[in-house]
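look at this stuff:

>
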Amino acid sequence: SFKRILTLMGGFSNYEINTIYALFAFNANKLYMIVISLASAMAATAIPLMAMARAQNDQQSMRDQIENGLLLFYFVMIPASLGMAAVAQQVYTVFYRYDAAGVTILEFASFMAIPLGLYTVGAAMMQGLSENKKMMKFLAIGIGLKLILQVPLVMFLKGMGPLLATGIAMSVINYLILHSFNMEFTLRFSRMAKPTNQILAYSLIMFAAVKLVMLGMNLIVDPHGRYMAFFALLPGMAIGIAVFGYLALRYRLVDEIMGPGRAAGFRRKLRITAA
């Protein structure tokens, strides 16, 4: 539909349409799917655990699995997506070549990876609970919304339009999934609020730190060359992992996700004192 919409709008040559299409459908898609694959890996582990709890009709276990799965998703996906956005210029340049429009689309797509990844995890949990019919209903609603939004968003945002349309549709599906879980299991959102807020806050701090490092590296090395972009990417990744890891261990976020015993072991090895 993207090419047809731009053709009907007029003002674009066939070469321009194909170029814009390639930026979001091929170039950026291949890179942000790396981040979404993390969610797919977590989704694969959720299905047998949820199915076992459902077979035993253990409501408490099912609720715990859903809450723990969501927190683990946030812990991995949010910093990974924001980290990808922070180093989007270097990553895009390394894999392809520097292109301002391509970098902008990759930055935007990195944020859209969060609702896409959450859909992957939520759908897997619904499958584990044998709620396939309900999940297909939610998916149909999302596809319908995507079709409605596709035309106006492509007209106004061009290459970012399809990504935003998909992101909004997936966000609606995610809301329906979480609402369904809450109606059936009464999720303890108050328990999840503190670690979720910590993840978001530490991810934003990490994003700002990495972005500053990348801007500084651009002043030192040529940001448009592939080799220079690769060498600039390495310290950015190291800073991002170090900042988020330190904050998560220092303020006991890892305790909530992995358990206090394992988190204490990491702190001893890294000589980090818990707050």
Observations:
- DSSP finds eleven helices and no strands in the chain.
- The chain has a mean pLDDT of 88.
- The longest helix spans residues 14-55.
